[in-house]
Every structure is written in structure tokens, then in C-alpha cells.
Amino acid sequence: MKIETIKKKLKEARASQRELRREIAKLRQLMLDAGENPDAREIDLTARNKRIYMQRIGGQRIAEIAREYKLSTTTVRNICHRVDEAIEGRGYHYEKYKDTLNYK
Description:
This protein is mainly α.
């Protein structure tokens, strides 16, 4: 590829990037205006994660759960922490996942 072609493509890519950044900024502001944190992590409440959480609040040790699901203890701890945040209303996705209250 010729250097002139590369320069032209780079200039086009940078222009596209600026447009995308402006669009992202607008969307982020709309979410902030609606009271949502646009940078909040999604809480993954799959059936597996709900089972993990139920086992943990049922008294099972994190290490046992991790072995059962072939996960690290850190992953199990993070799953339980995120579900706790959603249940206690501290997480940004409380409304979306408030049905989890039924699992406590």
C-alpha cells in the first residue's frame, strides 16, 4: 500500500473516531440525565450466577462453590458481591434486577 493511501485512510479513520466520540458523549449525557451511570458494570444474573449466590447465602463456602463450578474463588466472590449490590440497591441496575430479592 502506498504511503499516500495510508495517510488518506488514517485521516478518514480519525474523522470517524471524532464522530463516534461525540456520539458516545451525547449518549452518556442522556443516561446521566436519566439518572443512570453509563459506565456501570452490567450485573450478570444468569441462572448459574443465581444458583451460586443461593449456595453462598445458604452457607456454602466460596472455595466449595468455586470447585463445583470450576471457577476461581475470586470469580465466585465477585458474582456474589454484584448480586448483593443489586439487592441492596447500591448497584446501578437495581430496578432491572430487583426480582433477585425473591432469591434471598
